[in-house]
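Example record

One chain of 752 residues, shown exactly as stored in the release files.
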Amino acid sequence: MAANQNPNRKSESIRRANRIIQTRSFVLMILMGVVMFVLLFFRLFDLQITRHEELQSKAVNQQTRRTVVTASRGTIYDTAGNILAISSSAETIILSPLEINNALNDTENPVTWTKDSLAAGLAEILGKDAASIRKRMDNVKSQYELIQLRADEEVAAKVRAYVEENKISGVHLVADTKRYYPYGSLAAQVIGFVGDDNTGLYGLEAYYEEELEGQSGLVISAKDQAENDMLYTYEQYFAAKNGSDLTLTLDTTIQYYLEKGLEAMTDKFSAANGASGIVMNAKTGGIMAMASYPNYDLNDFLTVSDQTLQERIERGENTLAEMQLLQWRNKALNDTYEPGSTFKILTLSAALEEGVVDKTTTVNCGGSVNISGYTIHCSNKNGHGLQTLVQSVGNSCNPAFINYGLRIGNEKFYEYMRSFGLMNTTGIDLGGEAVGVFAADSSFTQLDLACYAFGQNFTVTPLTLISAQAACVNGGYLHTPYLVERITDSDGNVTYRHDSTPVRQVISEQTSATVRECLEYVVASGTGKNGQVAGYRIGGKTGTADKGQTGDVVVSFLCFAPADDPQVIMLITMDTPSRATGTYVSGGNMVAPTASTVMAEILPYLGIEPSYSAEELLGMDTTVPNVIGSTVEQAKEKLKERALSYKIVGDGDTITDQTPAGGAIIPGKSTVILYASAAKPTDKCVVPHLLGKTPSEANTAATAAGLLIRFSGTTGSESSAIRVLSQSIDEGTEVDAGTVITVQLGDTSVTD
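Predicted structure tokens for this chain:
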């Protein structure tokens, strides 16, 4: 049987071994396939699912070029439509070192320029260092090297002409916009400025960034691996949406008047810490002007322009960065101070509203008062004696107001401070508003109340205070101060308009009327006499507040007009005036005259009609009649008709010349010199020293010098202490005969 076996047939054991190997190989292949599949699955999952967005973004970046289309930033207008901030066309200049290198290495199309000549040419046009531009070209892998951000169109045109003339590759001009401020430093702390990326950094530019910035557009186009545009390509364009425009309550003319007054006042009294001022619509809370001094130029905001600040840097007292921050600071909004006697307006309002005082109230001032063991003095150390309510306000009597505060009581007084909005921000549409410092109501003592009643031992911002003061005189209504009247989108649609609904009524109309009456007395006969404006009824309150125990003070003046129906309210503060100017340090002596000057310009500008007394009418400006060729008698009659005096030089019968000339505008009651067949002198007249003189002395000195004089300021007071505080033309200046010098009068006996 063994002989019948096939010798080629493998033994059973070998066949079994082969089957096992095959089975194992098959299983192993299956296992390896499964493992590979699982690995591949997870790899694909990672690439297509987990990293989908990342890889898609890389692919898009490799295959497409994105060019941002800059949106035009919205324009800022004042209330009359004058442009305060606008974005003008500009071009950003960039280099592509890769393109420059390729062009220089292209032997088929050789160029005539070199990297050195290109750097020198651009440096000359842009006013930059050629070496720094040349160094940028060494980064040959780069396609973007910024050379000049937002160059003016004139400069960009020169660069473009240079590039085209020399057939230069790798220099690109990208359309952009540049922020420009036509009025330079006007309202700088309010408007603010933008940074290099056209994003608002300060002021309204920052607060309304979302509305002003707009939405940038985008152009997407295809490119190859070498960053070149593809021959057959596509392009998508997403249009930019320009920013919205702001129309403010601010008025450039009123702003100019305020800033001019602040600068003159601060320089005159060498105020160590500058000054601030706010002009507000008393009925709505709209800010008509807001200024801080020192100031700066919005078009060059990194430069410290104030000489005093520059000197502090040079002496090493402060760094450049510190002085930049200081000049950008809006003192009316960002800084707090102890208000002093201007706060008495609120104490008066609360006392009248609570019925604890009225116009028949009398109070005696002995020069000081003792509260909780502390002696508090009045500005009049000898005391004012027995006073009526109105007189106590006019005298700015501390003991009287302590008396009124104590009558109100701790709890009620604290409630009124809350109701007047003193303990919170006002809500103005401007960033960085500070909050004052007050004692907690739980620890508010009688001594606290006594000090608070006349404006000491707590702090407020000027903005918070004027908002509360406006409520005291406008019928009792507290308004949120605001700067933006409306916002208009790029299509001309008004998307926002301010609602002037008052926050609440704090005092009654009747109380407010009594407050106005008292404050009008302050300017007519009290410590605010230097705030008078001829032809207008002005209400106001002076303030001189101690700065802790430093010995320094903040002087201030609050005024409004017309006193019987307030349209405009203004608060001016000056921080740390010098005591070496020869002027008694007080708000009534230092700040009220400036307020008078500013108000005298604002009120006629706003069309608020003056109402002059008979005496004021005689002193009003009049036009000089032309009497040349007239007889002496005819000339006299013509001048008498204009209430003008005359002085005749010569003994002729006919007038051959006159000073001032016919048509000149001079103050009423001035003297006109008539030349009757006599030669008119041609010599210049020298302006005399008028400061410190009485009105009579100043008029005599000016007349003797052949000049005319116009009085302003405290013209309605019979005080023997009225003196010339300032003169419009400096002593020693040579001018034509008949030139009018405006002098401001003030009562130098005023104390707060």
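Notes: The mean pLDDT is 89.
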